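Journal club prep — side note

Before the paper discussion, L.F. wants everyone to see what a predicted structure for a comparable chain looks like in token form. Sequence:
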Amino acid sequence: MAKATKTGNATKNSGAGANDSMLQEFFVEELKDIYYAEKLIAKTLPKMKRAATTEKLKTAFEKHLEQTKKQIERLDKVFAKMGEKPKGKKCEAMEGIVKEGEGVIEDTEQGTATRDVALILAAQKVEHYEISTYGGLAQLARTLGKDDVARLLEQTLEEEKKTDLLLTDIAERSVNYQSAQEEA
């Protein structure tokens, strides 16, 4: 029977799906999906850095690349805790988001703030996908009674949220305004 605990106004069911093999299979498949996505992001970030104009954005992409490598290592630990071999499964969503991001590089002029605006928007689409995925996976891990796994996923979730805020800050403090001054 599931162990229910009271946290604030919400009831949390811990371990409710621990024996639900279908839920665990789904969870592992989603881990494979985000694993593939993170590896794709790690390959894509250097391209985004090279395409960026401002040093702040280049630095943000470099920092996120290092963070992404650590997140992949963290996912390796999650797989181990689940008794699974780390393996990716093609993430169609991330493939599409990355393809769109590559398109904004082609569609914007090199060396412009407008390109940086486009790169930030493309990067935030990636971040939002990751935020929703890690949030959902962390909740599923708790449902499965895997609190140690949930904590690892929540650590990555918080990093993704901070990256999203950093990108917003770069856009709002400079790049958007610089772009608005560029002539078409």
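L.F.'s comment for the group: The longest helix spans residues 147-180. Keep this in mind when we get to the figures.
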